[in-house]
Amino acid sequence: MVIELNHEEVFTPPTPSATVMVLRDSPRGLEVLLVRRHGDSKVLGGVHVFPGGKLDALDCQTADSQLDQTAETLAASLGEATLDAATGAGLYVAALRETFEECGLLLHQDLPSHVPAELRRHLKDGLGFAAAMTQLGLPLQTSSLKPWARWITPRVPSVSNRRFDVRFFVALAPAGQDVLHDDHEVTETVWLTPESALRRYWSGELGLVAAQILNLSQLVRHASVAEVMSAASARLPLLVEPEPFVNEGIRTVCYPGDPWHSVKHPVWTAPTRLTYRNNRFEPEGGLAALLG
After folding, report:
1. In whole angstroms, what is the distance from residue 26 CA to residue 8 CA?
2. DSSP secondary-structure letter at 114?
3. Sign (positive/negative) of CA torsion 210, 286, 32, 222?
4. What CA–CA distance (Å, rounded) separates 272 from 288?
5. Fewer CB under 10 Å: which end of the chain, C or N?
């Protein structure tokens, strides 16, 4: 798949968003869920991404009584000094809501089997996500999510003419639930090991953008869900602000720890630079660099 390069400078503030790397252990090793956005989508059409989407105002109106942790606790876990409690909690709610909307998984362990269908019915009837969960007598299980990273796209985004401020979470896939997609926003769901996803990207079978490429490159270094969740629990979320450059007419995007990036300390062991070649983003060292 060809990834089209954006050249427009964006002057509007980045849109707060949340996305979830849903994980499971399998006989093949650690697997992550990827969803393929509809080809007609205005943002990343046809690209495989992690489930997620924009923060809604209603997400930020969730009461503590609807949560399994306080809003203050959730905001503090994101490690952002200026983040208010309502927005912090709202980002967790957005992560749970978008995962359910895009792939049918309700991130809630030990869930009665009838709940997902009833939740879909309430949402179809116009009830908000948190209110629908309250109607079903269930708190939003924010503890199923661990903050992983915060990515803020630059003024000249690589693949979209929109900017996003995305909080990445990791979560264990709930047992006994089937992955679904609506054929509207999402046209495919697939479980892949991080290595398999990166190999399929390299062979041209899978469209990925930088955030997915580099997060997969971090996941490939972990053998199990427990390892990933432990790594996430041991630190605050990584702050990633990509810095693009044009060098000899070629777009290069640098990340913390790269010699060209303003932040000299690396935040991961994955590559710190991607260059737009062959209609896609590639690291120095090729596929081997992504696989560690």
Report:
1. 42
2. T
3. negative
4. 14
5. C
164-182: pLDDT as tens digits: 999 999 999 999 999 987 7
User: Tokens standing for 182?
Assistant: 């609506």
Helix or strand or coil: residue 229? helix
**pTM as predicted:** 0.95
For 58, half-sphere exposure in the C-beta direction (CA atoms, 13 angstrom radius) is 9
Q: What angle do CA 166, 61, 141 make, to 5 degrees?
A: 70
183 φψ region: left (φ > 0), alpha (ψ -120 to 50), beta (else):
left
Please choose, from the candidates 123, 153, 148, 152, the residue with its C-alpha nearest in 3D space to the C-alpha of residue 135: 123
Q: Which of 79, 125, 280, 109 is nearest to 117 (CA)?
A: 125
- Could you give phi then psi for residue 276, rounded to 5 degrees? -80, 100
Write down the domain spans for the chain: 15-237
Within 10 Å of residue 216's Cβ, how many Cβ atoms? 25
How much is the average pLDDT of 225-253?
Answer: 96
Task: Report d(CA 99, CA 22) in Å as an integer.
Answer: 9
Q: Which residues of 20-45 are buried (b: 16+ CB within 10 A; e: fewer)?
A: bbbbbeeeeebbbbbbbbbeeeeebe
Q: Is 13 left (phi over 0), alpha (psi -120 to 50) or beta?
A: beta
253's CB contacts (< 8 A; 6+ apart) are 158, 210, 242, 243, 244, 245, 273, 274, 275, 276, 281
- The answer to whether 49 and 55 are in contact (CB under 8 A) is no
Q: What is the pLDDT of residue 160?
A: 85
Q: What pLDDT band is residue 6 in, cutting at 50, 70 and 90?
A: confident
| Residue pLDDT, tens place only, 95-122 | 999 999 999 999 998 888 899 999 999 9
Question: What CA–CA distance (Å, rounded) separates 231 from 228?
Answer: 5
CATH 3.40.50.300 matches 15-237: no
